[in-house]
Inverse folding.
């Protein structure tokens, strides 16, 4: 075998390894889901120091026969960077510690605990449609793979299932509290001088409540569908307004659109934005829309770009929506009649704040 053939063989073997990595990479989120459901991050946190496998198995009340398998799960999660690994004092056993990633899903994080987000994004109802993408591509249909598989879109299923509704809103809640916590520390100026605010499509009010807690001078409200808000508290710091943002948005100085536009077509987004424009005062009187979305093409860093593209696959599969490049957002704003916008890069490159002015 000559050197060229050897190089070709080496390339093929490397390609095979990378292909197999892609094939089996679905076990990464499944391992994450398993860890959260078993309560492994909380067990390690509650232990107060790096935790041996034996102590972890006992704390989780798992059958002794599962300890070797628990070791294999922890080995994978450690390789993923979800947990850290240290030697015990006697050196006979490995001890596991939390990393900055796994700390985000521990109960001690309070309302910014993101374990609820793990629960909804890896729920069977959202994962199952991804198994039928090829079938969906072959059909001349505008419905999302989610609707093709379940016979109903996500919003209708939520209206008929209190359990699914709670799961979705709990997941979004953790992310909303997380986001406002970061904003309060890094860029609180986006709420300077704001007298009133409505979170449009704000669900059960997690983000509006977080804003009200951090910025008590702002009068906060949530607009969402009647079945979402009808049974929510009427005497809390946040007012809940039943309605459809395609038809009408109540007046306020500032409107918030968090993860709304990515769920709709360009035509539907323009309609939403026009309703929003009707509800806010002129820019000189503080009128603006604050949009929280990911902007495709905002970075070449693959560690950031990949989750953006994965999220785009999610909204395509679950909502028939899409993530957008900045020029696509600009086109939406112009078609809806807005005069200007500004991207605020305070949240890093993964997600962005976009302020839009009438």
């Amino acid at each position: 075998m000559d050197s060229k053939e050897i190089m070709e063989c080496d390339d093929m073997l490397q390609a095979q390894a990378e292909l197999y990595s892609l094939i089996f990479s679905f076990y990464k989120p499944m391992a994450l889901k398993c860890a959260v459901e078993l309560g492994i991050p909380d067990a390690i946190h509650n232990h107060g120091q790096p935790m041996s496998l034996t102590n972890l198995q006992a704390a989780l009340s798992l059958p002794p026969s599962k300890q070797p398998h628990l070791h294999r799960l922890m080995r994978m999660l450690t390789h993923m960077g979800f947990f850290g690994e240290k030697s015990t004092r006697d050196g006979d056993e490995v001890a596991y510690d939390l990393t900055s990633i796994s700390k985000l899903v521990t109960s001690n994080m309070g309302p910014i605990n993101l374990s609820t987000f793990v629960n909804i994004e890896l729920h069977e109802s959202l994962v199952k449609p991804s198994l039928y993408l090829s079938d969906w591509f072959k059909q001349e249909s505008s419905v999302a793979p989610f609707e093709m598989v379940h016979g109903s879109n996500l919003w209708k299923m939520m209206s008929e299932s209190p359990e699914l509704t709670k799961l979705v809103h709990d997941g979004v809640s953790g992310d909303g509290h997380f986001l406002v916590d970061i904003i309060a520390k890094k860029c609180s100026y986006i709420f300077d001088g704001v007298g009133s605010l409505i979170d449009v499509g704000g669900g059960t009010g997690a983000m509006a409540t977080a804003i009200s807690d951090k910025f008590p001078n702002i009068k906060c409200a949530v607009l969402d569908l009647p079945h979402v808000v009808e049974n929510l508290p009427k005497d809390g710091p946040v007012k809940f307004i039943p309605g459809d943002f395609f038809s009408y948005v109540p007046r306020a100085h500032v409107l918030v659109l968090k993860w709304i536009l990515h769920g709709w077509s360009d035509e539907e987004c323009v309609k939403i934005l026009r309703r929003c424009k009707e509800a806010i005062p002129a820019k000189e009187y503080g009128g603006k829309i604050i949009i929280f979305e990911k902007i495709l093409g905002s970075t070449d860093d693959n560690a950031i770009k990949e989750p953006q593209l994965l999220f785009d696959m999610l909204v395509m599969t679950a909502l028939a929506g899409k993530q957008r490049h900045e020029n696509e957002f600009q086109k939406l704003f112009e078609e809806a009649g807005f005069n200007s916008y500004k991207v605020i890069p305070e949240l890093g490159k993964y997600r962005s704040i976009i302020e839009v002015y009438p």
Observations:
- The longest helix spans residues 162-186.
- DSSP finds 16 helices and twelve strands in the chain.
- The longest strand covers residues 219-224.
